[in-house]
From TrEMBL:
It comes from the Eukaryota. GO terms for biological process: mitochondrial respiratory chain complex III assembly. Assembly factor required for Rieske Fe-S protein RIP1 incorporation into the cytochrome b-c1 (CIII) complex. Functions as a chaperone, binding to this subunit within the mitochondrial matrix and stabilizing it prior to its translocation and insertion into the late CIII dimeric intermediate within the mitochondrial inner membrane. Modulates the mitochondrial matrix zinc pool. It comes from Tortispora caseinolytica NRRL Y-17796. This is Mitochondrial zinc maintenance protein 1, mitochondrial.
């Protein structure tokens, strides 16, 4: 049970970080979090499913913290919108070099006549 509470708090904190300046999204995410945990309250007896749900919750928290970036349109840029991104210290910043490593050439499909 304490693992479930820790996972709940982990996701709650991640929501606070990810949606810091967007009260509407933050409120919606908190409501969804609560409803998901309430819906799975009966899993106390099934340890295997409970552990799976706790892992999922912690993965969601990690995703919210490291991969979600908020963008806000700048004022006066209706014709060509420009956005300001809110990056925080937990955002995973990287380069695209790792994407290309380890890929092998695939056989190109042949054209059917």
């Amino acid at each position: 049970m304490t693992k479930a509470v820790a996972a709940y708090r982990n996701v709650w904190r991640a929501i606070n970080i990810a949606f810091k300046e967007d009260v509407e999204l933050m409120t919606g995410a908190r409501m969804r979090l609560r409803s998901e945990f309430e819906a799975n309250r009966n899993l106390i007896e099934d340890k295997e499913q409970l552990d799976e749900k706790i892992l999922h919750a912690n993965a969601v928290a990690t995703l919210l913290r490291q991969n979600l970036v908020q963008g806000k349109a700048k004022e006066g840029s209706e014709d060509k919108p420009k956005y300001v991104l809110r990056l925080h210290e937990e955002i995973e910043l990287g380069d695209n070099e790792t994407i290309f490593q380890g890929k092998t050439k695939r056989d190109t499909p042949t054209k059917l006549s």
